[in-house]
Amino acid sequence: MNNIPRRIVTGIKDGKSVITEDQQVENAVEHFPGLIISDIWNTQKTPATLDFEKRIPNTGFPQTPKNGTYFRYVVIPPDKDLGVELKKGEPHPMMHKTLTLDYIIILSGELHLIMDEGETLLRPGDIVIQRGTNHAFNWLF
Fold first, then answer.
1. Which CATH number characterizes residue 93's domain?
2. Is residue 4 included in any domain, yes or no?
3. Given CB 3.0 to 4.6 Å as the disulfide criterion, which of 4, 12, 70, 138 pairs with 25?
4. In this structure, is residue 13 part of a structural domain?
5. What's CA 79's distance to the chain center, in Å?
């Protein structure tokens, strides 16, 4: 499983900020072969409470709390590793809709973001703002 570092800078000790955590995440879950999802941090409400620290449990795929946030690290494998078969004229088998506002940053690799109408190639450094719509990701290699 991927080594996913997490560093939490928070709290005040003698009037100074401190690093309260510097370790690999413990809750990385492999949902399908190669599809790894880890919830790095969450907030339960907006505005976030900055003096409250909560460890994120080792869970499947939790739903984002109403008015809260989740920061997720996701590794997307090639479609062939997931056993996904694309059929001409049909939606991508992994097409789904989330009721969340997602901020996506591509760190490595290339993949296609597929929408109901159209798609675009994403490369390292690309940023996507996904606003609660149908979408899928396709990595052919």
1. 2.60.120.10
2. no
3. 4
4. no
5. 18
How would you class 13 by CB atoms within 10 Å of its CB: exposed for 0-12, middle for 13-18, buried for 19 or more?
A: exposed
Three-class SS of residue 82? helix
Convert the pLDDT of each residue in 68-78 to its tens digit: 888 888 888 88
The sign of the CA dihedral 79, 85, 87, 90 is: negative
Helix or strand or coil: residue 140? coil
Does residue 77 form part of some domain? yes
Per-residue model confidence as pLDDT tens digits over 42-84: 788 888 777 655 555 555 566 677 788 888 888 888 878 888 7
Question: Half-sphere exposure of residue 110, counting CA atoms within 13 Å on the CB side?
Answer: 6
Q: Tell me the residue type at 18.
A: V
**Strand blocks (E) in 25-141:** 29-32, 35-43, 69-75, 96-97, 101-105, 111-114, 119-122, 127-131, 134-138
Q: Among candidates 88, 76, 89, which has minimal Cα distance to 138? A: 76
